[in-house]
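Entry 14. Structure prediction run on the chain below.
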Amino acid sequence: MLLLLAPLALELAVRAAGYSAPFWYRPDSQLGWTLRPGTQGWFTKQGRTFVRINDAGFRDRDHALDKPDDVFRIAVLGDEHSEAMPVELGQTWWSLLGEQLEGCSLAGGKRVEMLNFGVTSYGTAQELVMLETVAMRYQPDLVLLQFTPLNDPQNNSFALAFDKERPFYRLQGGKLRADDSFNDTARFARHASPSHAIARQIGDRSRAVQWLSMLPEDKSPPGVQKALLGPPPNELWEEAWQISEALILRMDEYSRRNGAKFALVSVSGGYGGERIGALAAKRGLQFVPLDLKVDGQRKAAELIAASLCGSRDKRLRAE
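Output returned:
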C-alpha cells in the first residue's frame, strides 16, 4: 500500500511546492530541437511566467499560414532573447515592437503582425534553417534577425559549440556547406526515441515526473567565453566569426530573393556588436545595436522602431 501511495504523495508534494518544469522542447531532425506545440505551464527559472506554446510550435500567438492582404508580417528569428520565456508574452520586445510600428510607413498603412520563431540556445545556422524551412512559408514582408554576439559565433562553429545536437555550416572555398551529421549520433537517437517521447507526454500531466527528470539536472553549459569579449585569439575563433557573417549574409540574400526586407538586431555591444555593425555597414544591411540587459524590453522595441521608421517622420531609413 505504501508503494502505491508514494507516487501520489510525491505528486501532491511537488504540486504543493509550486514546482513546474514542462518538457518544452523535442528533438528535430532539421533544427536539432524545437518547442513542443501546445505545451503550456509555469516557467519558473527566472521569476514565474505562464507560458503557452502555440499550435505551430512557437512561443507566440497562433497565426494562419496564409497572410491576409491587409497585413504586414515581420518574422523574428533568434534565441532565448526572442523566445523570452521569463517575460509575459505581451511585454516581449518583439510584441511591443509590433505596437510601435503601427502607422509606420514601413508597413504601407497595413496592420503589423509579429511572428516569433525564436528558440532558446539557437545559433545563426539553426535560424537560417528555420527561415528556409518554416518562417518563409508565412510570407513575411520583413525578416528580423536577433543576433547575440556573446554566444552565436561559438554556437555556429562545430569545433567550438558546447551542444552539437544541431545543424552546422562549414566554410569551404568561401562557400557555406551544410552539415546535419548530428542526426547520426547516439545521443540524438536516444533523445528522439519513442521512450523519450512517451516520457515527455507523461510529463505533461505529472509534476513529479518533471521533477524526477531533473535529478540529476544536466550540467549547465559554460558562460560567455572570454574569446568572444574581444578580437578572436586564434584561427578557430576567427573562423567561427566568418561562418556567422556568411550565415547572416545568406539570410539577407534569401529574404530579399523571396520578396522580404531584412534587418539585423544585435542584443549586446562590445567587440562582437561592433564587428556585426561593421559587416552591416559594409553590406548595406539595416542594423540596430542594443544592450538588451540595459535597455530592457520596451526601450529595445522603441529603438528598433525608431531605426526602422525614423524617430520623428516615421520614414524607413534604409531599404
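The chain is about 35% helix and 15% strand.
Filed with the rest of this week's runs.
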